[in-house]
Structure formats: structure tokens, C-alpha cells
């Protein structure tokens, strides 16, 4: 009997020791997990605050285009050729051109390349050309092999340009009447060959404005580096790319960009490689685009662009999308934990609204869009993934009713 009691006692002690060890291991494991979560929250906070500070520093060198009163002008009006590639733009081509033709203080030549339009665009263009001799219309009936439609149209228009400056702009852009003159005056003052403006956006939903503010935050660093003449820095914008004609031709122009989806940005790269200098500005209402009026529509607009922006590297777009999503998730969940690190993560995410508010003020928008801007990060991440998925699933992109295989785009892409 004693031996049995001794045995049970030993077994009990062993079970007790096992339970205590297991509990100790579980506590250690839980503590380790909590430490990792705390460190992750602090990392998100640090990333958010550092990003905010960097954007604020860059904003010192990313301003609006100066007013005409603050600029000296040449005694004779500059000769400027505006090149615009249009395809099926019947809804807005007339208002775009009528506003463009009101540009003051410049000797204007407007060249519209009608890129195989199948709607009423051609008819509208012919009528407007009959009204104003400054407007030249060229019709492209067939796209040559190994050319993107827009790049080919821009090359055709640039070949006809007679001005000392060439402005590449889009058919969905409304320009202020003095913006070209101001841009040329700034280029002369700064002794540069290229002026670009980020696109403003016509008023849409608050979410659409928030998306656009996030888009602009991503461009501020590009503008800042180009404006400080940082080696290898470049920038370009389809809404407003004003380039000295001689610099355009030396750089290789659209002949070199024939298969480059982000042709506007890469034009800035070609100019930088040719030793030319750029100045970039926040466009606001100086160059206002008619993009989608809601955030979901913006996903479709950027469908062909985001994958091209990383030179079709899937690993890079996956990493960026996952990082953005985790950053947003930690910033959203962090404050709910009640911990100091969690609250710091939330503030790190929210801090991005500070530079967004400054940009909203520069663009005369409501600060409310800046306040909700951090909440749309998942949509940006999804848009990036969607761009890659659609391109890979199709095996290329469809642009202006023409399909371009991904293999061809990768081979012809300027990078």
C-alpha cells in the first residue's frame, strides 16, 4: 500500500511539474508574441512618422507654378507648339481645345493627332480647325508595327512642331489661360529645358480626392529631387510636359519611347540622360484632369500603369502591396489594443494626413479629403495588384483598342 501511495505521489508530482513547465513555456511563447507585436507597432509608427517628415521636407521644393506677376517675361511672345494625341474624345475634345486656344502671351500652334478615332472626334476636330487657323489636325488611319498608339501620335505631332517649345498634354486636361506663358518664363528664369505639372483633378467624391492626394504624395519626392538637380533624378507628367524643342530632339523623343507605357515619366528620364534639367510643380487647377469621379474608377484608370511603373517586376509589386496593406492594418488595429505602441502606430498612419492637408490647401481642396486619405491605402494596394494580375492574365495590355504582348512591352520599355 505504501509503495502504491508513493508511486501515485510521484506521478502527481511529475504531472504537476509537467503542467508548470507547460504553463511556463506558454507564458514565454505569449510574451515572445506580444514583444513581436509591440515591435511591429513601433516599426509602423517609425515608418509613418519618418515618411511624413520626409514628405514635408520635400514639399519645400515642390510648389505651385509662380504667378505671372512674380515672373519677368521676354519682349516677344514665345512660340509654343502644343501636341495632343486624341482617340474617341468626342465628350471633351471641344471644351479642351477651346480652353487651350485661349492661352495668352504665347504664339500658339496646336497640333491634334486623331489616333484612329471611331466616334465624332474627327468631325469635331475638322470643324474647330476651320474656325481657327492655329489648329492643325492630323489623322492616323493605321498604327505602325511596334508602336503604342499614343506614343506614335505624339511622335507624329512633334515632327510637325515648329515652335521653340513643345507642350505635350492630354485631351482630358483643362489649362488655365496663362499657364504656358508662366511655365516658359520659369524655364527661362531657371535655365532649364523641361517644365512639368502634376495633374489636378476635377471635383469628384471625397474618396476620389483622397486617392488623388495619395497619388500626389508619391510624386512629391520625385519633384523635389528633380528641382534640386539630384543626379539621376527625373520626372514627367502627361498632363503638362513642356520641353524645349531642341532638347526633345537631342533626347531621342518619342522615337525612343515607342513601346513605353509610362511615356510621360520616361520622357523626363530621356531628358535627364541627355544632360537636360527639369523643374516640376504641383498643378492644382493650372492643369486639371477629368479623371474618374470615384475611387473605384481610379482602379480602372491605373490598370495599365502600376505594373509598368515597376518595369513589370511581379516581386516588387507584391512586396509593395503587402507592405502597404500591413502598414495600414497595423495603424488601424493598433489603437484598439490600448497599448502605447499600438496608439503610436495609429498616429504614424494618421500623420500622413499632415502633408496631404498642405497639398490640399495648395490645390484649393477641402482638408476633409486629406483626413480620410490614410483609409484608402488598401485600395491603392489592390489597384497595384490588379494591374499586375490583369496584365499577366491577358499576357499584355489593351490600350486604345490595340493589344500589346507583355514580352514586347518588356523588351521595348525604356528603363
Short synopsis of the structure:
The chain folds into 2 domains: 68-294, Spore Coat Polysaccharide Biosynthesis Protein SpsA, Chain A; 297-400, no CATH class. It contains 17 helices and 12 strands.
For CATH, the homologous superfamily of the largest domain is named as Spore Coat Polysaccharide Biosynthesis Protein SpsA, Chain A
Unreliable spans:
none
Query: Domains counted in the coordinates: how many?
Result: 2
Q: Could you tell me the number of beta strands?
A: 12
* Distance from first to last alpha carbon: 87 Å
Q: Which bin fits the share of residues in helices?
A: 55-70%
Which band does the percent of strand residues land in? 5-15%
SSE topology string: HEHEHEHEEHEEHEHHHEEHHHHHHHEEH
Fill in the CATH topology of the largest domain.
Spore Coat Polysaccharide Biosynthesis Protein SpsA, Chain A
Shape, please? globular
Mean pLDDT: 91
Question: What's the tally of helices?
Answer: 17
Q: Give the structural class.
A: alpha/beta
Radius of gyration in whole Å, from Cα? 27 Å
Instruction: Specify the CATH architecture of the largest domain.
Output: Alpha-Beta Complex
Strand arrangement within the widest β-sheet reads 3-2-1-4-8-6-9
CATH structural class of the largest domain? Alpha Beta
Largest sheet: 7 strands, mixed
